[in-house]
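Structural prep section.
Before we set up the soaks we want a predicted structure of the protein with magnesium ion in place, mainly to decide which crystallisation condition to try first. Input record follows.
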Amino acid sequence: MKITGAKVFVGGPGKNYVTLKIMTDQGVYGLGDATLNNRETLPAKYLEDYLVPALIGMDPRNSEDIWQYLYRGAYFRRGPIAMAAFGAIDMALWDIKGKLANMPIYQLLGGKSREGAMVYAHATGADLEDLMESISYYLEQGYKAVRVQCGIPGMPSASYGVSETKGDVENYITDFSGIRPKVEIWDTDRYMRYMPGALAEIRARFGPDLKILHDVHHRLLPREAAEFAKAVEPVGLYWLEDPTPAEDQDALTLLRQHSTVPIAIGEVFNSIWDCNKLIEKELIDFIRVAVTYAGGITPVKRIVDLAGLHNVRTGFHGAPSHSPLSMAAQAQINAWAPNFGIQEYLVLGTPECDALFPSEHRLENGLFHVSDAPGLGVDFDEQEAERYRYKPGSHPIVRLEDGTLWNY
Ligand SMILES: [Mg+2]
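Run finished without errors. Recording the tokens verbatim:
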């Protein structure tokens, strides 16, 4: 069996999905997602210019050897662009493998460990009361878990994950007005003073059963993060996400000395080498890698197994920039993983998105039910894809009030 060709598509309804289709001499094809938010043309170019030509003639069933070929073969390896491109190839090869076996991928991993995988939505509010309404909206949809972000009184502009307009229950970050990013102003002191009390009010309003998650988005210094984690401990968060800049992993030792709040980290990690020490030292409770830019199902399964040894659960990244293909790849792992925790999931199910990526995967009462179709369980309509083109977009950058650049 041989790979005969591959195509890369960039575009989609309201998003620049990077979709890879690998064809074989037996008519079976595989699909993968290489979307890297707001840098979408780069993994597409990496695939087209460097990787696809090398794949032609290879046996697509040898997904492990092909992964090693891509990773070890690139002297300048890792990084989100290369790993997103590898991830798309790896997903597509698992898709082919599943189709050949006539099984969904979760069966090839070891079968189902659960009927449905719990997901969380993004609740957002221009202010706390607005956020309360957004949480209620998601509870009415059946969600058991929500990430909560709200505007901070006195903050000069909206902060991460916060809608500027009241009543906007869904918040999508990419601004398609051009490449040059908007500027948001961040004020750590105002955030530190306001947010713990706001989280406590949310707990009081919705009771003990709601799983509440909150994302700091790398904005706090290590000592501030420790203070914040200690302050929010009585809220009983399901997790506190990215409290510190991801590069400074020692920061979590300080945080752990001061708080037992569960910590979730890893959405910007690209490989097991970015998180193996955090997992082995048990400094995190949830690992947040994405199957896309952590290099595909093959390496992420290794991360999940390492995490399982240390009682770290999964909480894969699932921002709206992930196409239904990588969400399906994650759903396949989620169905199997003995140490599954939760999945970030923003409903992509617009009629346009469903037409481009038909599938039988379904969300019901806050649980994701994986399709039993062979492979990833998602198809790709190339005719539909012709409707879409790449649209330049950006996410904001962040400065302090005096102009100092801060972490987005
Ligand atoms: Mg996050």
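Observations: The two ends are 46 Å apart (CA to CA).
Flagged for discussion at group meeting.
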